[in-house]
Amino acid sequence: MMEFLYFPEDKSEYIPAVIMLSIFIIGAAITMYFIIKHSRKEEQKSESQTKAQVPNGEKETSQRG
What we know:
Blueprint: H1 14-53
């Protein structure tokens, strides 16, 4: 029966996989940072537009029933 998983005897074969994994994790973290940064800018823009539309800084109340 053939082995399902391959575990190399020479552990140096893991080095390229660890390097690639590290690159992707760092890339994902950087992407997440920029997404959060952009989201905060959009939130501030939305809040400033809402304050400009509502007189005296009062919050709108919805009349849904």
